[in-house]
Design a protein that fits this description.
By secondary structure, this protein is an alpha/beta fold. It contains eight helices and seven strands. The structure holds NADP nicotinamide-adenine-dinucleotide phosphate.
């Protein structure tokens, strides 16, 4: 199926590894040119070379998105280098887990500075360019924003806020020709997941397979997700073939979320 994304331009935040890396590569495979955003220059440059080899253009933009000035810089540099903007993927995020009574103001401020305010500022800066192309915003939130977990107060509340922001900006986008949608992944097998798995192995002394099965059973799913599955969904959601999709917050979590 031709998704009609060829020669369009995307910005992907958090593109240096994990889900964002898979999204950027997938969009390039669909023919998009991509601006790659994260703090670490080297993995962004490596991905830029990989996208180059596909015959697509990419720019590596190493910035810290907690810096309030970074999003406007990213959008302006992308427009200068790639000439237009059709898709913004707000993916960068890192929030501390743990006991609510032990999490500090700084932990909360840090989680919000990147995942919520980073997305707010990226979207605000990108909006006029997206209006010009009839483009779209897709935010990678997380199913922890729909179901409370005592160990995930910062990430869960950030993800809930991103979900509401998606609905509110989709309302604006109806009038202004910008589509705004979000994905709520469940657990996806990235480096972060593997670190959690290794911790469980170290704590319990069981095999990696047994630790995986314990985690899987606790989440009541058949398996966890792969970054490429999130990337495939982003590509489809970005496609004009389903331009009726507006304000959707799509669960991609193996059925873990059982509420409507
Ligand atoms: N993996 C999961 O199970 C899962 C589940 C639900 C939702 N999600 C959400 O999906 C998104 C991606 O998750 P992931 O597991 O792929 O994360 P990850 O492997 O930890 O990657 C996070 C990405 O964000 C970048 N980043 C971190 N801090 C940044 C900053 N201050 N400024 C700019 N970029 C920054 C990282 O690159 P640098 O370190 O180089 O900056 C990296 O590219 C996150 O928003 C996460 O909350 C993940």
């Amino acid at each position: 199926m031709d998704l009609g994304l060829a020669d369009k331009v995307a910005i992907v935040t958090g593109a240096s590894r994990g889900i964002g890396h898979a999204i950027a590569l997938r969009l390039a495979q669909e023919g998009m040119h991509v601006a790659l955003v994260a703090r670490s220059r080297e993995p962004l440059e490596a991905l830029r070379r990989e996208i180059d080899a596909l015959g697509r253009e990419a720019v590596a933009l190493p910035v810290d998105l907690r810096d309030p000035a970074a999003p406007a810089h990213v959008v302006a540099t992308t427009a200068g280098a790639l000439g237009r903007l059709d898709l913004l993927v707000n993916n960068a995020g890192a929030t501390k887990r743990g006991d609510f009574l032990a999490l500090t103001d700084d932990d909360w401020a840090d989680g919000y500075a990147l995942k919520l305010f980073g997305a707010v500022r990226m979207t605000r800066a990108a909006w006029p360019l997206l209006q010009a192309t009839g483009g779209s915003v897709i935010s990678i939130a997380g199913n922890g924003g729909r179901t409370g977990d005592r160990e995930f107060t910062i990430g869960g509340s950030v993800n809930a806020a991103l979900g509401l922001l998606t609905k509110a900006l989709a309302d604006r986008g109806i009038a202004e020709g910008v589509r705004v949608n979000a994905i709520n992944p469940g657990i996806v097998e990235t480096d972060r997941f593997r670190t959690r798995l290794q911790r469980l192995v170290a704590e319990t002394g069981v095999s990696e397979a047994a630790a995986y099965d314990t985690m899987r059973a606790a989440h009541r799913v058949a398996r966890f997700g792969r970054p490429e599955e999130v990337a495939d969904l982003v590509a489809v959601m970005a496609s004009g073939r389903i331009a009726y999709l507006q304000g959707a917050v799509v669960d991609l979590d193996g059925g873990e979320t059982r509420t409507l």
